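Chain and conformation:
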Amino acid sequence: MCYDDNTENIRNIYRQVGAQIYRKKTKVTVMYAFERVLVGEALVGVGPEVAHIDLVIGPRGSTVEQAFVNALASPTVGHTPLLAVLAPNLPAKPHTLMVNKVTIKGAGQALLIFGPAQAAVAKAVMDCVGTGTLPEELAEDLFIIVSVFIEWDAKDKKKVYEYNYQATKLAIERAVAKEPKPIEILAKKDSAKHPFA
């Protein structure tokens, strides 16, 4: 959200939300959520290409940055963290690390992670920057870790891309908005049905 420098309520807003203020020319951008770790989740799609995304977003100096560096430096057999890129040499900003939830057991599954899922996650991040969900001013100072689910039986590259794009974008939007709210979860706790339970 942007305000002119001379807006008289800017300091009150700052105090109310505990936000950081970033000055850019004659505008002041109030960053509500980005001084703490945010968590998002989304499930999109059906069949073996279903996308389930869990993610965390955190500022430079946070535990998210430390986990990002540790994971990138510590690959294990079947679990290779990788940067989300739109194309080779064109990584997403904020810096985005993908980690797979399911052990990669073959070349087909690896190609889905290192292809459509990687591109989809990067595109979702950059579209969130484009819409302002993730502030462009903070693109160098935020870190995102995205946990990606690719089922062993997944085959359709287009569905893998589309479902992971939608799920990543939705998870980022939910994280930034801190949704769902606890009151919503409490209202559904006895009626919610988990699709895989």
